[in-house]
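Now for our specimen.

. . .
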Amino acid sequence: MTADYLGLLFSAFIALGGVIGYFKSNSIASLVSGLVFGMLISLSAQYASGQPKGYSLLPAALCLVLCFVMGSRFLKSKKFMPAGMVAATSLLMATRYVLKAC
């Protein structure tokens, strides 16, 4: 079983973003959502790395949910940081997982 290092790095990026959002604007919602999504993406990516191809759709679905949520925040605020960057990287990771599942 090979580790999904890119998935781990992405999940750490999401969790760290939640922590930074908490310290920067005292947002508990950022902290909780960042840590929860980071943990779920990390666990699902590691589980999918040792399973047949179809299991990569679980982390892809999580990344797409994150992409849609942060993409809508980006469209409202028109600020690339942090919502646009998270939406873009989530879309890239979801694409990676979908291609991995095929």
